[in-house]
Amino acid sequence: MSQQKAVELGVDLSPLEPGYLNLCIRSGNLLITSGHTSDQKGVLGKDVTVEQGYAAAKDCAKKILRSVHNCHGSLDGLRVIKLLGCVYSAGDFTDQHLVINGASDLLHEIYGKDGDGYHARSALGFAALPTGAAVEVEAIFEIKDV
Q1: What distances in angstroms separate CA 31 from CA 23, 64, 77, 115, one per listed residue?
Q2: CA-based nearest residue to 80, from 25, 10, 130, 32
Q3: How many Å separate Cα 18 from the centre of its chain?
Q4: pTM beyond 0.85
Q5: What dotted CATH number matches 2-10+24-143?
Q6: How much is the pLDDT for 146?
């Protein structure tokens, strides 16, 4: 059911080529992802708007779901435990939480805000992110049927 919803929302679940680092690894009943960066580049509060940052965080969440699917074989039967959202921020930018809502809202839509999508989260500002990405997000999921 969650996987079907993700596909309806435009999440690409096609296979991934292995890279330098493992994008998602299983440990016990947890799926832990690496940080996934947005295609959007730039600094929030300078040349990237909160709305663009929100879309970038949503993009990160879609990439995370693809990696989770690639590792686990399904998006069904999972609970979202924790997100860490990193925002490339100007020194006086303080709306990181509004940016990372892009990732949280997508996961709420797929897994339910009052159900398995109700997660813990941190949203932090950074002086720079790899490749100049505006946003980077990592996640932890629980496999419920173990």
Answers
A1: 10, 11, 12, 18
A2: 32
A3: 19
A4: yes
A5: 3.30.1330.40
A6: 59
